[in-house]
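Chapter summary example.
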Amino acid sequence: MSRGATPRVKRRTASKGRLQTLATNWRFMLVQFSVAMLGLGLALRIASLQVMPDVEQGYQFLQHQGQVRTIREQEIPAYRGAITDRNGEPLAISTPLAALWLNPSVFDPVNAARLASALEIPSAELDKRLARYQDSQFMYLRRGMSPAEARKILDLGFSGLNVQTEYRRFYPEAEVTAQIVGLTDIDDRGIEGVELGFDSVLRGQSGSERVVKDLRGQVVERLGLVEAVEPGSDIQLTIDLRLQYIAYRALKATVTKHQAKAASMVIMDPKTGEVLAMVSQPSFNPNSRDFNPNAMRNRAVVDSFEPGSTVKPFTIAAAIEQRLVQPSTRVNTAPGYLRVDGNLIQDPVNYGELDVRTVLAKSSQVGTVKIAMEMEPEALHDMFQRVGLGTPPGMGFPGELGGVLPQRSRWSDIQQATFAFGYGLTATSLQLAQAYSVLANDGIRVSPRLVRGTAAIP
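The structure predicted for these 458 residues follows.
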């Protein structure tokens, strides 16, 4: 029995071994098939992402996402137009400088101390600024640097550190033309003078370009221009720099001699209205931002005052126009004073009898008042108005004043008398220059001009 059973046991064992082998082979093939299918599915997915455009989040989507993270549109600053005198001498020009900026979101704070040392600022100051801009992607580090200085710091390789080109104004004539030309702020926008009044002409239009940036924010490739830069237009002023220097020195010397607080001077061509020189004291150096803001005032244009005896020629002109007097008409100023409405008006001395020419030459208050009281006050007011008093010159300069030329329904005698020799009204130095140009131009009034021409202003 035992001998007969042995073959059956052997057959059962062999059969079981074959079954185990088949099961093992099946599992192995199943794993192989699963891996193959997984690989095929992955390959198909990759192919669909790279080839098929209509698949959701396909290759176009991935390309767009990649471009969003690497391609940027950055500004190309416009070059600000120059300002020159009538002969082409530069009064304001732009110099290219560098501005260092940082992306705090990618900057490693471990390098803060080294960066502060390179910038020559206290580490605590940089730490404070980094904390303030920690959620921002842009923070200025320093502006107005020379390109070489900026490149030296940029080459240290800090992540998130970038440089951009900007322009800064330089004024070769400094305080000689300061109040005319004015100045710009740190963003190169006009804030005073011609720089402000004609900012839209000088500024131009910035452009833009598409660039590829790496993870550090550095430009690695320029893809092309998006919008071209439109540089600002140059402006040529009517100022003659040679006359401007002479006027500046003369006015400064006079102010120093008389210890005056302020003064202004205008030289104007009476035939064309072109302002050849215009200076004010005190002045300032626009290349240095350490100055008294009060010195920025172009007093010839924005400060008005009672003109006093400077308007007497227009009182006499009105009387001649009314045919009340001639240059040779005699006027008795004795005894050197007179009373009007109880107010004493007097000359320094008793000039006695004078002709109208000498009344002007001596600037006689008594003689002027006697002539003025022969006129209707409206005729005197009309003359002052026609020579430009009481009206802004319209030169385009910021803050131009027109002065005050009172119009009354009823004039008292004293109001008419004082008005005749320049009190009770106000004017600027530029208005007086315009008014006197009428006398020098055979009675023809011309408007003052400061800008001779540009590409944008005929």
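To summarize the output: DSSP finds 16 helices and 17 strands in the chain.
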